[in-house]
Design a protein that fits this description.
The protein has about 230 residues and is an alpha+beta fold. The chain has a domain of about 160 residues: Alpha-Beta Complex (endopeptidase fold (from Nostoc punctiforme)). The protein is about 30% helix and about 15% strand. Strands 1-6-2-3-4-5 form a six-stranded antiparallel beta sheet. Helix 3 packs across helix 6. The two termini are about 35 Å apart. Keywords: Signal. InterPro entries: CHAP_dom. This is CHAP domain-containing protein.
Length: about 230
């Protein structure tokens, strides 16, 4: 079966530092134990509850608070409206590829992966570009991530602690056709529409079938895992 991922020609595993402009440094730090004193400690040694709660949030959660309130259903609605869009005979010509090439992210991933010029994305596998485009249209690209390489995109979710094995509506689902659970084996990506409760999921995917956006039913046995954008709506 055709693999629907963009495979970089150079430095395939160099993904840890590229996180769509979001740092994964741990927020805040542990409070040192206070010595036993007769007098109460000074107020500046205590962290107010609101500040402590903020420090406990991940960078992506903090970023999500700055973004529009968007629900999983709103993202799925955007994806569904693209159903039927098809690539041309050369495997390109979609608005998802054109958008990605015009974005600053294309130069970043090209520098990371190698492989020529930005023009190479014009007819490259576009399933990850489709997912990225939907996140951009919804206004939550910083917590959806953006990439043309499925493996790097999945690793971005995992590095940001937004990765798991539950099929939630609106989750980004990653597939390996051979049933592998290794992120490095990922072949394809789409959105979960629903868990059908029978070992399958309904999805919305780009670059599927004969190079189209389509709704599909997939066995969970082909799922590597799920990335969870942060929905606040």
């Amino acid at each position: 079966m055709t693999k629907h991922r963009l495979i970089p020609t150079l430095r395939r595993n160099h993904v840890a530092g590229v996180l769509a402009g979001v740092s994964i440094a741990v927020a805040g730090g542990a409070l040192a134990a206070s010595p036993a004193l007769a007098d109460p400690p000074s107020s500046h040694a205590l962290t107010p509850p609101a500040e402590a709660a903020q420090a406990a949030k991940s960078p992506l959660q903090i970023e999500a608070e700055r973004l529009p309130k968007v629900s999983a259903q709103q993202v799925l609605s955007i994806a569904e409206k693209q159903i039927g869009i098809s690539e041309n005979a050369q495997g390109g010509g979609t608005k998802f590829q054109s958008w990605y090439m015009s974005s600053p992210r294309a130069k970043e991933t090209l520098a990371r992966d190698g492989g020529g010029t930005v023009r190479a994305y014009a007819d490259a596998p576009w399933c990850a570009m489709f997912v990225s485009w939907v996140g951009e249209q919804a206004g939550i690209r910083p917590t959806m991530g953006w990439d043309a390489y499925t493996v790097a995109h999945a690793k971005w979710f995992k590095a940001n602690h937004q990765w798991g094995d539950v099929a939630k509506p609106g989750a980004v689902v990653y597939f390996a056709w051979d049933g592998s659970k290794s992120l490095d084996s990922i072949d394809h990506v789409g959105f979960v529409k629903k868990d059908n409760g029978n070992g399958t999921i309904t999805t919305i995917e780009g670059n599927t079938g004969n190079g189209k956006v389509a709704e599909r039913v997939r066995p969970k046995s082909q799922v590597v895992g799920y990335g969870y954008p942060i929905y606040t709506g």
